[in-house]
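Entry for the shared binder. Reason: the reviewer on the internal report wants the predicted structure included alongside the sequence.
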Amino acid sequence: MTSTPAATEIVFEEEFMAGLRTIFEEMIVFNKVLGLQITSIAASQVRARLNMKPELIGHYAHKRIHGGAISASLDAMGGLAVMAAIGARHMDESPTQRLHRFAKLGTIDLRVDYLRPGIGEFFEIRAEVMRLGSRVASTRMEFYGADGTLLSTGSAAYIVS
């Protein structure tokens, strides 16, 4: 995924970053169950790591990650990308005010393409917002193996108001 950098990349305050991390990794309990850990937050792209664990196995003989875990991870990361984009759009507000804007965020549509089997010790998920409108955001996501091989891709639409 190649992201076009903004002329001046937004720098988020530590309070906003910590708040996003708490919402994503702790308050959205399913993300915690999956084990999603944010590795990078920027207005243009977000990244996370997912460590393989027995609870995520979808095929017992091959130890492949379940397609539902891939889909849920891509969806969660698309949502995080939208949160970052909304945060960047409203830099005139306090970090707390921006964090409260996520209450109405929800998935409208999700498409996942499974390209290769998900086998490995960990995975990296990347997401970016393609368009942030006043009511709907469109995203693109990618799910990589530990060796950098693209395993799955996704696209989604989210309600933002």
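Summary line for the report: The chain is about 30% helix and 35% strand.
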